[in-house]
Amino acid sequence: MAVLHAWRTARVTPLGELHTPPRMTAVLLRLTVQVVLVASLWHGLYSHTGTTAGLSEDQAVTFAVLAVLASRLRELDQYANRDTVLQHMHFGTIVYWYLRPLPPQRYHALRAAGEQLYGFAWALGGYLVCLAAGVVRPPGSAAVAGVFALSLVLGQLVLYFVMLVLDQLCFWTVRNNAAMLILIFAQNLLSGVYAPLWFFPDWFITMSGFLPFQATLNVPLSLYIGRIPLSEAPEQLAIQAVWVVLLFLFTRFLWRRAARRVISQGG
What we know:
Distance between the termini: 32 Å
Largest sheet: none
Order of helices and strands: HHHHHHHHHHHH
Number of helices: 12
Radius of gyration: 19 Å
């Protein structure tokens, strides 16, 4: 019974997507355009150069395209389904999270897991197409592929907890629109979505090392393309694991504090 309830909870937001074909068509079109434009851009940037910032043309293009595909892991339109914590706080429906037998923290985690599995299906499909078309290169070895997979899972856990902190902020501010925009920009910039961090100055790379964003995407993709060698993988995986533990403990503390501040507005 518990497994059934978990499955029903995890599939809520993906079902909203699957029952809206125009939305899925828009996602496919946007993802295709992004991949084509990003690949063309980086091929163009490397047309008159060899290796830059320790990256060859194939490495840079692979990194950039995989970053676009990875962005699909957590890009479901929750707002259209009135499915965000911000909306629940505004309409007062957040109170039902605390009246159900399922604890709110578990409910939130199961919803996120379902979203990420759905997003992973999109990312994996796009990856296989790009791999077959020669847009991205395969991992250097089975060991690299295994380390990349583990690092990607840890990175997504870090990203989940970072986004959870932002959701929990609503218990104190009710609205988090401005914070959401700032965090999304910081996440994309400091994780390598806009450009691989290896192209930024040393001081920027050092500064980003003290923040969790680099662990979400830059580390897994750098391992995949070989910019971070396998010999350094244990250290990078350990750093990611530390961020997961720290953010887990912090969000657990915030859940306990948030329960004391549940209010109903609107509705």
